[in-house]
Amino acid sequence: MSIEQHTHDSTGGDAGGAGGDAGGGAEAAHPRFAAALREQGLEALLAGVRRYPDAVRTAAEVAAAVGCELSQICKSLIFAADAEPVLVLMDGAGRVDVEAVRRELDAKKVSRASAAAVREATGYAIGGVPPFGHRTRTRVLADRSLLDHEVVWAAAGTPHSVFPVAPADLVALAGATVVDVRERAAGQDA
User: Fold this and answer.
1) With contact defined as beta carbons under 8 Å apart, do 53 and 75 qualify?
2) Beta-strand (E) ranges in the chain?
3) Euclidean distance between CA atoms 110 and 45, whole angstroms
4) Is 39 helix (H, G, I), strand (E, B) or coil?
5) How confident is the model at residue 23 (pLDDT cuts 50, 70, 90)?
6) What is the pTM of this model?
7) Which helix (H) or strand (E) is 65 found in, with range?
8) CB 160 within 8 A of CB 61
9) What is the pLDDT of residues 84-97, one digit of tens each?
């Protein structure tokens, strides 16, 4: 499904959701994120942005507000790999295996980035980091689990706004490398 088709056909659930009445469109996105979409000719994605009066900072809060499965949420997580920021896109039901990220990047050390480092690298606060449209260019890893869905929901630059996107489009727009960095339960095959 193309980006254009997707934004008109991807409600994925109750527009009001648990967070109350959702407003939407370009004004619901962070201005930097909206500008990044316009610069790339992706205004169609802005039409799908939803804003909720209550913050939707966690994947569970987003899923409840949107009315979708937890695994349909795309978390944008910043890590420090040998002191360099790297963005990991993970489905809302998964956890990042930091050791798998370290191996994937051939880094000596990988850890969660501080709130200040997240804002410095992306221009956004934790809880509102979108999967692209950042202040600086970083390496991006997208966990393969995101591709299990027709539509995923990601932050639109604020803790109050999200937008729908087809996972293949998300990977392309973020310039991501698809990898397997999902934490596995004990005894689960890799």
Assistant:
1) no
2) 23-24, 50-51, 73-81, 84-91, 110-112, 139-143, 152-155, 161-165, 177-179
3) 32
4) helix
5) low
6) 0.84
7) helix 59-66
8) no
9) 999 999 999 999 99
